[in-house]
Design a protein that fits this description.
Elements: H1 7-13, H2 24-32, H3 48-69, H4 75-96, H5 98-106, H6 115-145, E1 162-165, E2 168-171, E3 174-176, E4 178-181, E5 204-206, H7 232-239, E6 247-250, H8 258-263, H9 282-299, E7 309-313, H10 336-349, H11 354-361, H12 385-412, E8 418-421, H13 425-428, H14 438-444, E9 448-450, H15 477-489, E10 495-500, H16 515-527, E11 532-535, H17 559-565, H18 573-588, H19 590-597, E12 603-606, H20 609-614, H21 618-628, E13 637-639, H22 641-646, E14 654-657, H23 665-676, E15 680-683, E16 708-711, H24 718-727, E17 736-741, E18 749-755, E19 761-767, E20 773-779, E21 785-789, E22 794-796, E23 799-802, E24 807-814
Parallel strand pairs: 4-11, 5-6, 6-7, 7-8, 9-10, 10-11, 12-13, 12-14, 14-15, 15-16
Antiparallel strand pairs: 1-2, 2-3, 17-20, 18-19, 19-24, 20-23, 21-22, 21-24
Helix pairs in contact: 2-5, 3-4, 3-6, 4-6, 4-18, 5-6, 9-12, 10-12, 16-18
């Protein structure tokens, strides 16, 4: 049985699917299966690009045989060959089905006006890129065969025998970084090696590959009948699954069975985009509690749960006025259950004193039982007590919901690992009306979970230059800021990005995405903590055709996938190959990556959710300080009240407080306790830490006590603040020094250093900048050094150039 979601609903919600599609289910399928085109494909032998690719494949095969005869690993070349063959096949299909390809391009608004041209050009574009990856593969293998470079064999993933260890995943007793695609063609079993293999990844998708339908392997509320029994066919899809490979299961929260809607007329009030019901509703909580307990018990111990149970897809409940998310009527309201819970929360917050609330809100409620609030709340009330109380409660209620789900799951499966697919812009962007407390939810679950994105080009709906474009090769703010925060909150948890948007996203993609960008961004994300990722997305059947969800064969046309297909990795052989190749490299150096990730975070920025709720541009301000300290040879870190209270304070050398005016008394006391233990706190101005959550002046201020309190006057530049932070972090700074010259005053090379057991230093270099960077390496004590490129095992000078988006992993030895 398959549950359908209205196409009209999805089209209204997803900005990348803006076309009129009344006839998509039938016409798209017919055109996709057409064998004729207005531009019939030439025979393979008549196409110069195909002939060239075939000749290059023959050359590469010969060289691979030579390499194997010398016991040289050719895993990388096997992948080049596989993608070359696959994409030549895909190009033939695209050429024979030009009308279907044109329609696919038309579903993505930025491509609509040129969809005919793009469809015509696509087959030879794909063939051209196949030639490019073959050229690169031949060139690299020539260097290996000629002794120009030495490279490590690929540490291949044993997909059937993954170990979930503390703070890392392991394969064959070594750290491993797992990779796959967010979505794969419906119904293909693990035994289909054209879909599940080392080239595309082989993680079992327990529900994600059916996005966004409420059926099959996704755990959803349609499993349960009104009488408390289960729909056995749907339950079997969850419990009787292939258990041979590492995988994950997901709670899919979109739909609500009719029997619940009949019993609970308010059940849709306060819903959100991907959570289709009121999370405060008692019947919903009972229903999902039972489902979580029972499915947890039935799937306990299965490999398909090794990467955990994803408790929600992109949870958010934006509750302020004039927000894009309020396209459902039910999103512009809250249920009576939510209102009553809010009243109880307020009663506790104000110690039962309604007069205190009235004084704070400037209201005249007779009791807590009569308190009212209009949702969506007026965004112009930001910074007032009512704004703070609602948004703090709003976060607390989502924490309660996910705590409930996790608690019930673990009654059935006490060993269950969990994570949430949190959108990292819930942290990195300024908005705080979404109900997501990233720190609390990262603490709650046993894994870190997210779906971070990055972008090599400006978002296609933006017409003006963005700030990052002035200095950097790609947009990295969301990824890095959020990852450093989550890793600071939970330094010993496995980190799963279950829908990585590094290759494309809703509002960005580029058919000619650079291979160098893919290499750089995956090194960055992995060095910043990512242990597993599923890239968005794979939608080709093995014969090259669009998979069922893009053809209508399931009587359901999926606009999310249709709008994402154009310009995706499915049309870019160079990017598909680059993604796998960079994962091969990361896994070949997995032990070095883990060593770099263990580097201390000597400088910590103080993060306050209180200021983030109250201020319109708090995170924009925080990023400016973070950015200034991002390129100094160590990973940036954060502290919060909870981090200070729960973690070893010796893991950092100082705390920087920057433009953080609003903090609770508890937050202030945590900072004081750090000073009492001898810590160092640097405060940028007298305004920081000056007000409580309601804007009232704090009666007490920080005292140096046993520590160092560096109180600045607010007149310092960011560069001067950076200098102060580094001055009080001298013991934690690396022994290696790096001087970067890229022709500007803006740094672009993110670098890290760790000292190895043999006395050598491991150094990573990632050039995020737009310009080539000339780099000079030295030891802080002045001793001479020798530099070795670990990718090639060649010696380098202490002065070297790193191109934009370049990646280096070095061994530095004192002479």
């Amino acid at each position: 049985m398959r549950k359908k979601i209205s196409y009209a609903i999805w089209a209204s919600l997803l900005p990348f699917c803006l076309a009129s599609c009344e006839d998509t289910t039938n016409s798209f399928q017919q055109e996709a299966k057409s064998t004729e085109s207005t531009h019939p494909a030439p025979l393979a032998s008549e196409n110069a690009l195909v002939i060239s690719a075939q000749q290059k494949m023959a050359v590469l095969e010969t060289k691979m045989a030579q390499a194997e005869a010398q016991n040289i690993d050719v895993t990388r070349e096997e992948t080049v060959m596989w993608f070359a063959k696959e994409f030549l096949k895909f190009a033939d299909w695209d050429e024979k089905n030009e009308a279907a390809v044109e329609k696919a391009f038309s579903y993505y608004a930025p491509y609509r006006d040129k969809s005919k041209q793009l469809a015509k050009e696509l087959p030879d574009f794909e063939r051209s890129k196949v030639n490019d990856i073959l050229d690169a593969g031949i060139s690299e293998l020539d260097l290996v065969l000629n002794g120009g470079i030495k490279r490590r064999p690929v540490n291949k993933v044993d997909w059937q025998n993954i170990e979930v260890a503390e703070n890392m995943l392991k394969s064959n007793s070594k750290p491993i970084f797992l990779y796959d695609y967010f979505s794969k063609t419906v119904g293909q079993p693990l035994t289909n090696k054209a879909v599940y293999n080392d080239h595309l990844g082989a993680i079992y998708h327990g529900g994600e590959n059916l996005y966004p339908v409420d059926h099959d392997r996704a755990i959803n509320s349609f499993l349960l009948k009104e009488d408390g029994s289960y729909d056995q066919a749907l339950l079997d899809e969850v419990t009787q699954i292939d258990g041979s490979n590492v995988g994950f299961l997901i709670y899919w929260n979109m739909g609500v069975p009719q029997w619940i809607e009949k019993r609970e007329p308010e059940v849709r009030k306060g819903r959100s985009l991907f959570t289709g019901y009121d999370i405060d509703n008692p019947l919903i909580r009972d229903t999902w509690g039972k489902i979580a307990r029972d499915t947890g018990e039935l799937t306990r111990g299965k490999k398909v749960t090794q990467l955990g149970y994803i408790l929600a897809n992109e949870p958010h409940w934006f509750s302020e006025s004039d927000h894009w998310s309020h396209q459902f009527k039910e999103m512009n309201d809250i249920s009576s259950y939510t209102l009553n819970n809010f009243r109880d929360w307020l009663k506790d917050k104000y110690a039962g004193e309604i007069a205190a609330l009235n004084n704070n809100w400037q209201s005249d409620f007779s009791s807590f039982e009569t308190v009212q609030i209009i949702i969506p709340i007026d965004k112009n009330t930001q910074g007032t007590p009512i704004w703070y109380d609602w948004n703090r409660y709003h976060m607390d209620r989502s924490i309660s919901w996910f705590s409930h789900l996790q608690d019930e799951l673990r009654k059935g499966n006490p060993e269950a690992d969990t994570h949430l697919k949190i959108m990292p812009n819930m942290f990195s962007e300024n908005n705080r009306s979404h109900g997501i407390d990233v720190e609390a939810l990262t603490e709650l679950t046993s894994f870190i979970g997210d779906d971070a994105k990055a972008a090599e080009k400006r978002f296609l709906h933006l017409t003006t230059e963005q700030e990052w474009e002035k200095h950097y090769a790609y947009m990295w703010e969301e990824l890095s800021l959020s990852y450093d925060f989550m890793e600071s909150v939970a330094p010993n948890k496995i980190h799963v990005n279950s829908e990585s948007h590094f290759l494309s996203a809703s509002w960005w993609r580029d058919l000619d995405t650079s291979v160098e960008y893919v290499e750089n961004v995956y090194w960055l994300a992995t060095l910043q903590g990512m242990d597993a990722n599923m890239a968005w997305f794979w939608a080709r059947d093995p014969d090259g055709s669009f998979e069922d969800r893009l053809e209508g064969e399931l009587n359901f046309f999926d606009p999310a996938l249709a709008g994402s297909f154009a310009g995706s990795v499915n049309q870019q052989p160079h990017i598909a190959n680059a993604y796998t190749q960079v994962m091969y490299d990361l896994n070949s150096f997995s032990e070095e990556v883990i060593a770099l990730r263990k580097q201390r975070r000597p400088v910590r920025m103080f993060y306050s959710e209180t200021s983030a709720i109250n201020k319109k541009t708090h995170m924009s301000q925080q990023f400016k300080m973070y950015e200034k300290l991002f390129f100094d040879g160590f990973p940036m870190g954060f502290t919060t009240q909870k981090i200070i209270e729960k973690q070893d304070n010796s893991q950092w050398d100082n705390i920087v407080v920057y433009k953080t005016e609003f903090v609770t008394t508890a937050e202030l006391l945590a900072l004081q306790s750090y000073l009492d233990q001898g810590g160092t706190v640097i405060i940028d101005s007298p305004q920081s830490l000056s007000k409580d959550e309601y804007g009232n002046p704090h009666k007490n201020t920080l005292k140096a006590s046993k520590g160092k309190l560096v109180q600045l006057d607010g007149k310092q530049t960011l560069a001067q603040l950076r200098a102060v932070a580094l001055e009080y972090a001298q013991p934690g700074l690396p022994d290696i020094t790096l001087v970067e010259n890229n022709g500007t005053q803006h740094k672009g090379v993110r670098w890290q250093v760790v000292k190895q057991a043999d006395g050598s230093y491991l150094v990573s270099l990632l050039n995020l900048g737009k310009q080539t960077a000339d780099i000079t390496l030295a030891l802080r004590d002045g001793k001479s050094i020798k530099v070795i490129d670990l990718f090639t095992e060649n010696k380098l000078n202490t002065q070297l150039s790193l191109p934009s988006k370049g990646v280096k992993l070095l061994k530095v030895v004192a002479n």
